[in-house]
Specification:
Helix Hairpins; mainly alpha; flat
Length: 202
């Protein structure tokens, strides 16, 4: 498994400063940009293009808090995270609420698609606004939970910096994986709610 932290000379911590990461990326990308070898043999140009692509991928992943956390956990454990379909306890309380809301919005959208009369569509407009408001309120709740989890990830840098026993490091990695799994579900649900909101506005 490629250590993307090493590619950008980035300290391996769960959370990183986006501005510092951007500065590092700009410095390294200037050094590795394919334009620097535009007159080199084709194999060298191809290798430079691959390195530059890897660098861009590393920057994208390490600049995204959720993806950075995933990569951090996988590099530390030496294996991919599995079983992501299991809803973690940190997000389980929202599962039924989000599911019912998405199902209701889908039913409303399906009924609205069947209506061709402009008068009937106008009558459904107010209901559409109500559904959009409910979706936005739920999105706000998910966003608050998302921000709260990201704050916990930020705070996890300090305990990770201090010397820890293997058991303490394993416990912290377990906590971080739980946070990652929760962020993954919250992100998926926020995307689904946003998709329905866009459809309601059409």
């Amino acid at each position: 498994m490629t250590d993307l932290f090493a590619l950008l000379d980035e300290p391996r911590f769960p959370w990183g400063d986006p501005e510092i990461l951007k500065k590092k990326f700009l410095v390294v990308s200037a050094q590795l940009h394919p334009d620097r070898v535009h007159s080199a043999p084709e194999l060298e140009r191809a290798a430079a293009a691959v390195k530059f692509s890897e660098l861009n991928s590393a920057y994208r992943i390490l600049g995204d808090p959720k993806e950075r956390l995933r990569h951090f956990i996988e590099v530390e454990r030496g294996r991919k995270i599995s079983g992501i379909q299991t809803i973690p306890d940190l997000a389980a309380d929202l599962f039924l609420e989000v599911g019912a809301l998405l199902q209701g919005a889908d039913q409303f959208l399906a009924e609205r698609r069947k209506v061709s009369s402009p008068l009937l569509r106008a009558q459904l407009f107010a209901q559409g606004l109500e559904w959009a408001e409910r979706l936005n309120q739920c999105s706000g709740t998910l966003r608050q939970r998302w921000e709260s989890l990201l704050q916990r990830v930020r705070e996890s840098n300090e305990p990770w910096k201090s010397p820890a026993t293997p058991d303490e490091r394993a416990r912290l990695l377990d906590e971080l994986e739980l946070m990652y799994r929760s962020l993954a579900f919250l992100g998926r649900w926020m995307d689904q709610l946003q998709s329905r909101t866009v459809q309601l506005a059409e």
